[in-house]
């Protein structure tokens, strides 16, 4: 072995003494050179490195070394608490007095660690490849950063993977030859002086980069845990993390969870931390950046990204480079790709912005592979739904701040049942994009590359959403609200609720649908307990002054009840479409027209394409066949008449169309009517139209033209308006006003027919035709 240099990351006299003692005790004997030369020692400082190492002509082995200070062991782990900070002392970086006390009383809390050694020539080679600057000062900074990184890895062996944090990120990115070349292109194209572009990029990175620390990670977890630990019991399979951990050793992971609550990131990351999984870099919105939450969150791994970049090319380049850096270093990312919390309880359409930045790291060959992890987070109850319902009725959202946080924290002290975390199968981003037509690195000369990339990204996002839905469990509250919202102006006894739910439980079992706590619904006592919880939460009202208690949705709480129902309705959408198609065939008088390419079912699918995630037409029709066979197992063999199919549907014990799809089609019907009433020569103000739909829709509910208040939702109206846009019914200016008027009228007529068939489904449903027999125990 040749000469050896120890780089000591020592910030105090005590740390230098500990490192010296540790080396003198023989722990460095295996580094002695063949000539018997003892290793030299150098403080880990860029200036000292530049003077002592950068110009050396030999090839010494560089060995980083440091002292890791551990907090005292308590409650089964070594975590920093606010009580420690209030003493003005960080147990992970104690002051000199505390260091002396630890060495004397608890020496096991001071551990000397070695980073991975590297030959100086290897460091020079990597520096030239990654940075491109051959100056001694640049090499010294690179050696300093490399030593810090490898010491952090060594320390994680002791502290755990949940403390995997990047160091000196801004410095590394600003030293990157690739990034500097990108900035030169931007400065030239946008007439910005290069020094100014460099300064702006550094400023953008300081704004973006999560300057993480172990101290902040501990304190953030301790501060935020009361916002979820008292409310929910977490149900998640830690075994699922084992395979993800193995995958993470080779590839960076991008966690994309469903978004139903402010608590989503807290619940998920607390579960990951308790299982010693590396902490995700969470992409957060600027609305949560307020003091003191924002600064602490940023130091615990939250990356606050501007909602709009505008034409700021330097900021865009900084975001792209930061993402590429994190992914290349196998730091995991997390964000909520719906773009905001669900207002209805089901998945919202995805946003593609951040996914595009991740994809660019693949396309530029910065990262060989990225694995996307779909995550479902499903709650039995949420305390924030009243505010969401207020927004859906046209109310203004309360701005986040200290007052909001105090109110939220107070509500979170109340028990809200269970929360279920489920991980979908990881998706290879490279494979999925290629399969979807992304040309990646080898586009053909005539390829419209942006269009191909956009289409491939849409397909990937669709697959992610489907994967989230596929692992989202149905909860007891979802089934109870599904039943109570399905009856018109009527309360149900516990026996009637059970009779309505029982055939659905059988259906869920047949389908193999993932479930939460629905087993409690199989007994009267369990069902009563669920109804009592919903009554306590103010979602259900109970009248118990008669012969027996009866239950219905609390007035004003229909949107809240619909949120719970909608969390699982994607499992019933195909069934509901089959039901409406059967009723359409019965009305028209066809004989089993469902075999004729499912024409009407595909028309319904097209109307709902912005509400639910449907597969391609061939797969969709195959799924409809499966649903038909559940209604009539002998459908293929006996080729039943439409009357026999209708009878089989009624005899199945339940009908889903009115329970699952009514609020969506009702909202579309309101939008269609309001659009049809407009002058086709005038442009439509969409915000005003949504406000008008809220007012007119409320009138229609009062008149009995719509089933219930759960249809009066700004979210549903906006999505219906998106459908109308897609169908060309809201152009800025009409070239043929007469044709536009006709098409708007046709759209309204089509939806009126759908609403009519849903009312027929309601009438045929056993829950609405008669009082169901009891006999349950």
UniProtKB/TrEMBL annotation:
Question: What subcellular compartments does it reside in?
Answer: Endomembrane system
Keywords for this protein: Acyltransferase, Membrane, Transferase
Which SUPFAM superfamilies does the protein's record reference? Glycerol-3-phosphate (1)-acyltransferase
Q: What membrane topology term does the record carry?
A: Peripheral membrane protein
A single GO molecular function term of this UniProt record: O-acyltransferase activity
In its keyword annotation, does this UniProt entry include Heme?
A: no
Predominantly, its location class is membrane
BP term (GO), one: lipid metabolic process
Q: Which InterPro entries match?
A: GPAT/DHAPAT, GPAT/DHAPAT_C, GPAT/DHAPAT_LPLAT, Plipid/glycerol_acylTrfase
What is any one of the record's Gene Ontology cellular component terms? endomembrane system
Q: Which SMART domains match?
A: PlsC
Its family remark reads: Belongs to the GPAT/DAPAT family.
Q: Which NCBIfam families match?
A: PRK03355.1
Name under which the protein is recorded: Glycerol-3-phosphate acyltransferase
Q: Which organism is it from?
A: Hoyosella rhizosphaerae
């Amino acid at each position: 072995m040749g000469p050896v240099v120890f780089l000591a990351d020592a910030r105090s006299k005590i740390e230098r003494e500990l490192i010296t003692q540790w080396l003198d005790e023989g722990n460095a004997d295996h580094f002695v050179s063949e000539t018997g030369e003892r290793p030299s020692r150098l403080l880990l400082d860029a200036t000292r490195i530049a003077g002592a190492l950068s110009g050396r002509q030999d090839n010494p082995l560089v060995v980083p070394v440091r002292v890791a200070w551990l907090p005292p062991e308590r409650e089964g782990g070594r975590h920093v608490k606010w009580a420690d900070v209030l003493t003005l002392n960080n147990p992970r970086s104690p002051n000199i007095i505390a260091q002396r006390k630890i060495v004397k009383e608890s020496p096991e809390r001071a551990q000397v660690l070695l980073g991975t050694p590297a030959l100086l020539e290897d460091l020079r080679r990597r520096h030239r490849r990654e940075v491109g600057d051959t100056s001694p000062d640049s090499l010294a900074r690179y050696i300093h950063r490399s030593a810090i990184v490898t010491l952090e890895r060594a320390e994680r062996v002791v502290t755990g993977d949940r403390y995997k944090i990047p160091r000196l990120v801004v410095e590394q990115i600003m030293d990157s030859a690739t990034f500097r070349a990108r900035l030169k292109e931007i400065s030239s194209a946008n007439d910005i002086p290069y020094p100014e572009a460099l300064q702006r990029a550094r400023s953008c990175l300081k704004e973006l980069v999560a300057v993480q620390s172990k101290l902040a990670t501990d304190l953030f977890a301790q501060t935020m845990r009361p916002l979820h630990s008292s409310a929910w019991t977490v149900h998640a399979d830690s075994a699922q993390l084992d395979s993800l951990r193995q995958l993470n050793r080779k590839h960076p992971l991008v966690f994309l969870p469903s978004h139903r609550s402010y608590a989503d990131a807290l619940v998920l990351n607390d579960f990951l931390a308790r299982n010693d999984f590396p902490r995700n870099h969470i992409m957060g919105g600027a609305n949560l950046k307020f003091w003191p939450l924002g600064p602490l969150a940023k130091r615990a791994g939250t990356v606050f990204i501007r909602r709009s970049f505008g034409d700021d090319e330097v900021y865009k380049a900084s975001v792209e480079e930061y993402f590429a850096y994190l992914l290349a270093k196998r730091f995991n990312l997390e964000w909520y790709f719906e773009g905001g919390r669900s207002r209805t309880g089901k998945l919202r359409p995805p946003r593609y912005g951040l996914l595009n930045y991740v994809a660019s790291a693949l396309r530029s060959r910065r990262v060989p592979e990225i694995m996307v992890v779909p995550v479902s987070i499903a709650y039995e109850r949420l305390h924030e739904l009243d505010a969401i319902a207020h927004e859906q009725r046209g109310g203004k959202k309360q701005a986040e701040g200290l007052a909001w946080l105090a109110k939220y924290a107070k509500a979170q002290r109340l028990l809200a049942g269970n929360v279920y975390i489920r991980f979908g199968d990881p998706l290879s981003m490279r494979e999925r994009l290629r399969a979807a037509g992304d040309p990646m690195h080898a586009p053909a000369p005539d390829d419209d590359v942006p269009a191909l990339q956009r289409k491939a990204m849409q397909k990937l996002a669709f697959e992610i959403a489907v994967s989230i839905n596929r692992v989202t469990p149905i909860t007891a509250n979802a089934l109870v609200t599904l039943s109570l919202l399905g009856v018109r102006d009527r309360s149900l006894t516990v026996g009637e609720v059970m009779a309505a739910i029982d055939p659905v439980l059988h259906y869920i079992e047949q389908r193999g649908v993932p479930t939460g706590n629905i087993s409690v619904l199989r007994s009267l006592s369990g069902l009563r307990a669920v109804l009592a919880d919903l009554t306590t939460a103010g979602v259900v009202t109970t009248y118990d002054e008669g012969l027996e208690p009866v239950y219905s949705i609390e007035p004003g709480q229909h949107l809240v009840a619909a949120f719970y129902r909608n969390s699982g309705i994607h499992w019933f959408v195909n069934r509901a479409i089959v039901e409406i198609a059967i009723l359409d065939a019965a009305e028209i008088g066809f004989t089993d027209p469902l075999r004729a390419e499912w024409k009407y079912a595909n028309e319904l699918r097209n109307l709902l394409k912005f509400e639910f995630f449907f597969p391609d037409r061939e797969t969709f029709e195959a799924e409809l066949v499966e649903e038909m066979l559940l209604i009539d197992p002998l459908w293929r063999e006996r080729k039943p008449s439409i009357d026999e199919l209708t009878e089989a549907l009624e005899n199945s014990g339940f009908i889903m169309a009115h329970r699952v799809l009514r609020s969506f089609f009702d909202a579309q019907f309101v939008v269609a009517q309001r659009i049809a009433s407009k002058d086709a020569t005038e442009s439509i103000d969409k915000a005003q139209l949504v406000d008008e739909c809220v007012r007119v829709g409320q009138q229609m509910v009062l008149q009995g033209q719509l089933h219930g208040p759960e249809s009066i939702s700004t979210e549903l109206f906006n999505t219906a308006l998106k459908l109308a846009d897609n169908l060309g019914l809201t152009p800025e200016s009409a070239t043929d006003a007469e044709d536009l008027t006709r098409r708007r009228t046709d759209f309204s007529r089509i939806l009126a027919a759908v609403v009519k068939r849903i009312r027929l489904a309601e009438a045929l449903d056993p829950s609405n035709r008669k009082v169901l027999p009891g006999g349950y125990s």
